[in-house]
Amino acid sequence: MAALERTPARAGLGLVILALVAYRLAYHAIYLGDIPFAYATFAEGAIHEQAARDILAHPPLGSLPFHLQGAYAYLLTTGMTIHAWPSLGLLVQLGLVALSLVLAHRSARWLWGERAGRWCTIALLAHPPLMFYENKYVPAALAVGASVAMVAALVAMMRARAAGRSPLGAAAALGVAAGVAGLADPALFLAAPFALMAAFVLARPGPDHAVPEARGGDGWAAALTLAGLLVALTPLAARNLAVTGHADLLPPQEPGLSLFIGNNARSRGLWNDAGLYSARAGTELSELAQTLGVDPDLDARDQAAALGATLGQRARAWIREHPGEFAALEARKLWWTLGDRPLGQSYDWLGERELLPWANRVGVSFSLLLALAVLGAAAVFGGGWRPEPGGAGPDDAGAGPDDAGAGPDDAGAAPDDAGPKPNPGQVQPLLAADAPERRRALGWLLAGLFFAPLAGNLALFSTAAHRLPMVVPAALLAGPGLLAASAALAARFGSARAAEDRVTLPTWSWILAAILLAQGPWPRLRSNQPSTSFYYNLAMVQDEVGDPRAAMDTLGRAIERRPDLPAYRMRRAHLRVRLEDYDAAEDDLDVLDELAADAEAQGSPLPVWILEQAEFDRATIAWERRRLP
Question: By percentage, how much of the chain surpasses pLDDT 70?
Fold first, then answer.
């Protein structure tokens, strides 16, 4: 590929990046300033906050088992040590997000050079779901950051090898990042073997290791990567051993609970309650234990493990007994996962548009990202594309000329075949050379980072948060994919630069990219309105931050759409009691009594916590009426 010689073109890409960064900063600032979801948690976020508060109350280990990712609870705790506000934990999360975006930008420029690297950064910054989940109380942003750290560690290994230094420190960092990624999103544990293979391939002696001091050590590199992985996992295992007596890495009810949610007679490939519990944060496990007949005398950890084992057995039994339905369900999960519309579990994409109409309206869709990634993979790993020389300046590299990343023997081409020469002070892109080991190592890692979350979505259930780590490898290949496609099209239609920039992409890559691009916008859901649960969750958060009247109005919108949901009626009755609107509260409680009677007649009584709250509110109304003249 031709070097990016024209300053206006380079400056143009830089301005696009700056505009995207400014847009991102404005979004996060307004979200933190105006949106109630930034100040209070619900659903899984409430469970994470509960775990963080337990750690604060009993530092540094806490006293309760983790029912979700413990690593994310500690991330929230980091900010909440200043003051017990979850929003301070969110600020720490946003700091890690900023660091991961910088690492992604630098890694892309080191791999591909200035132009392709900047296109990778643009693809990453312009993908709306990534920005959407950066400020939510879910571990998706931590999983993305750890995935980026894995790529950055592999790039550091490449730089060390090219400069004749030992890559073992970077190999250990790769293992640590892989461990953190798995703790943030258990599906990413499947990427750990790919990281080990990448370290082994990169450290193996080969033609791209021209520096004698850099040869050998492939076994040591893989061993250090494994050691780094164990270093990342050991603290959580030790904490759980000390608190619960079991060295768990996953929540004790997993993966059985998620496996059952994604694979049961009611499942459509998305999150569902499987008809077993009310999905109330904090009581769902006890409700399940009661429904499944788990021994109530067990402690919290063993009870969760028992119900997870029971639900896992049910899911596997259903899969064995219904192979055809399971195959259709897997196809449906793939359909959900590859679409452009983010399908949330807790946070509602369309609901946030009502709160911030200008945010997340346009950008690089998931299907476009996948299409460019396919073209990029075909070009990079098929050998038909090379980055332009002179990808990054020394100040960006963090090294002087001796650490340039490629010597004369690493150029991969004779002088008359080398193409445009880099500027003297610039650093060669790591993949500009004929470096098969580097490409294979990168291929192993990116494959793991892509297919691990995909496998998680297919095995369990599909959500936009669970698929978010797939964006990292896709964006890193999108830059080369865009330039390779443009060069191939220019050659096809007779551009004057065709001879210099010619790239041949295989036919299958064009076909697959076209299919991915075409299927993405296809509607996945009939409704284009926020879910009913969005209004319910917003009402609960509004009430928690001290605005019960706004919560009343919002909850009314939820009840208009689903008047038959007992939890909604109970919540509004309780709000009305607090606001001393006793007649209206009794109306809701009367409807709730009818719903409870219907549920009892159908053999599925309402959860105890709903009935107890309704009884308490009736008693409160009676007492207040006796007290008033």
Answer: 86
